[in-house]
Amino acid sequence: MEKIVLELISIGKFYKDGENILWILKNVNLKIYKGTFISIVAPSGSGKSTLLNIMATLDRPSEGKVIIDNEDTSKLDDVRLSKIRATKIGFVFQQFNLIPELTAYENVILPFVFSGNTDEEYAKNLMIRLGLGERLRFYPSQLSGGQKQRVAIARALVNRPKILFADEPTGNLDPDSAKEVLNVFRELNRDGNTIVLVTHDYNIAKTAQKIYTIKNKTLVEVDDI
Amino acid sequence: MIYKLIIRFITYNKLRSFLVILSIFISSLFFLSILGFGNAQKEQLISNLNRLSSNIMIIVPVVIDNPFLIQRAARTGLIIETFKESDLKSIYEIPGVLDVYKGAATFLKISTKKADFTLQVTGIEKKGVDILYDISELDKGKTDLNYGEILIGGALADRYELRAGDIIKINNRPFKIAGIFKKVGQNLFNLDNAIFMLVEDLIKVAGLDEKRVYSIIIKFDNSFDEKMIIESIHEILDKSRKINDPNKRNYSILAASSISQQIDVLIDGLKIFFLLIASISIVVSIINLINNLYIFVSEKYKQFATLKVIGADRNFITFLIFGMVALFVLLGLLPSFIIIAILSNYLEYKLYPSDILISIILLGISILISVYFPSRYANNIEPAEALRNE
Among A146, B195, B279, B387, which is 20 to 30 Å from B92 by CA? Predict the structure, then answer.
């Protein structure tokens, strides 16, 4: 039987505005198996980023459970959540969010500080595999958009996470670079990485094996694409 | 990696970091200078006073709470009632008193080749001139003092380029410099800046009444209790002046120990005042540091959020801010320590264990405050909120 890497059970998220309750997500259920590549496609403001943040333990659900690698994260304290983010989760942002004061290589090995890993050889090989072998000592300001995003992907993967989240990873890239980055995600998935990609663009969402959308504040699989 | 990050974050805005370090440097230098040099100067002053004037007392016919007010009292003519010849005889009878001399002091116009100025001139009986040589040796000239001659302090001679044998005018009368004292620092007579002449000369040149005794100088035996001698002098003078209430005494007894205590209190007061100012400058530099770190965290808002996303916990963020504060403080303190070390080759520097303890506590509190507020701000950053795209 395939291993479940992440499971969402009856996730709900609401914000209080005085006495009114504003629901963003309701009764979201999802099982993500090891090695799958799913995408969540929905227009802006639909709650997809909120869902991604909840899955990646950056935000807490108002109700329900998030189980990552058999561990219920809903009741964990901040220190334990930080440890889970350091060891089990990789995150790729739309705006790369690299540390400008560090070189590409230093950005990639930065998560070692939090995970306790020291496999610098793996980090270097990862960068070489992502086409960054010549750019190790470059600072983010000296890299193109596509290169920055590949550095961000390498940083997200350096601790061999159980699951990789990508929030609009091509949103800030030109079409060629976007294509290049999507190919990287396909390759990573072929190598057995579990990936969750969030986008508002159906063409990008098609990169994944399964596509979900948010309808009536809940997550539904899209079959007809 | 964390140390690299701390250094890169500090060098991120070099000018701002430099200004923070500069403010820490200035305030710490100010604080340490007042503390260490103040202590050393005080110790030196008191030790000179005790060493050089330990067997001499001066009785003056004015009420002086502060030894530094002697000159002002003399200048403003606060003398109400001078002493009598009989007072001298009675004081001489006190056990432990070795000798009693008549003296006087007043401000006179001095004319030298270099400048004209007004200075307090002290007159002393011929037989009492020897007590000056208990305080310091002559640098130049002769020890014997005759009519028409003066002895001057080393600092005064340097300032006005005076040499033994030179003639200067005091109230338009010529006086020959018989001798110049070696510089000795602070003492009862302020010897380094003093002019001495025979009391008879002073009475004439200043137009004083020769029948009066303007001040009494006492040489006593160190093995006797100074307090007992002072008590006996009070008894004699209170009786002679018909004073029943010690608070209504119109004369003062200046002794090295009492002056030391007064100077001690006075310098401590001054030290506390300046330390207060120095502490304010430290507080300002801490506020400056906290403010800069707040600005830094605001500017690096997304990067702190990113660090949290990739696994940084509260301890890491706090340590990062602590590292920055520690480096700022270290870079600010280091040059001030170096400057103090260099200056201490030329000036006496003394830190008491209590000062070191207070400084360490102050430093610890400063660092804690500087770390606490910016790190709390950084730790409260919500990554989901900070990294939101839309």
Answer: B195
Segments forming the whole domain that contains residue B160? 62-250
B231 Cβ contact list (under 8 Å, min separation 6): none
| Chain A contacts to B (CB-CB under 8 A) | 44-45, 49-50, 53, 56, 58-59, 78-79, 82-83, 85-87, 91, 93-95, 97-102, 106, 109-115, 155-156, 159, 167-168, 171
Distance CA B119, CA B192 (A): 13
How confident is the model over B258-297, as pLDDT tens digits? Answer: 667 777 777 778 778 888 888 888 888 899 999 999 999 9
Looking at the fold, whether B219 and B148 belong to one and the same domain comes out as yes
Mean pLDDT of B92-112: 90
DSSP calls for B267-286: HHHHHHHHHHHHHHHHHHHH
**Domains identified in chain B, total number:** 2
DSSP letters spanning B10-36 = HGGGHHHHHHHHHHHHHHHHHHHHHHH
Whether residue A18 is contained in a domain is answered as no
pLDDT reported for residue A36: 92
Residues on chain B touching A154 (C-beta within 8 angstroms):
none
Q: Give me the number of domains chain A comprises.
A: 1
CA closest to A118 among chain B residues: B1
Structural domain contains residue A5: no
Contact B355, B39 (CB under 8 A): yes
Within a domain: residue B101? yes
| Token output for B184 | 């000795």
* Res B186: pLDDT: 64
User: Has residue B257 been placed in a domain?
Assistant: no
Q: Give A91's contacts in chain B (Cβ within 8 Å).
A: 309-310
Q: What gap in Å lies between CA B295 and CA B288, rounded to an integer?
A: 10
Residue B67 pLDDT greater than 70, yes or no: no
Q: Do B35 and B97 fall into the same domain?
A: no
Q: What is the pLDDT of residues A115-141, one digit of tens each?
A: 888 888 989 988 998 888 888 899 999
From the list A93, A56, A67, A92, the residue with the least C-alpha distance to A9 is: A67
CB B123 within 8 A of CB B104: yes
Alpha helices in A88-129 (DSSP H): 104-109, 112-115, 120-129
In chain A, the residue whose alpha carbon lies closest to the alpha carbon of B382 is: A58
Phi, psi of B14, deg, nearest 5: -65, -45
* B335 in the same domain as B231: no
Mark which of B203, B221, B250 sits at the end of a domain. Answer: B250
**Is residue A10 a part of any domain in this protein?**
no
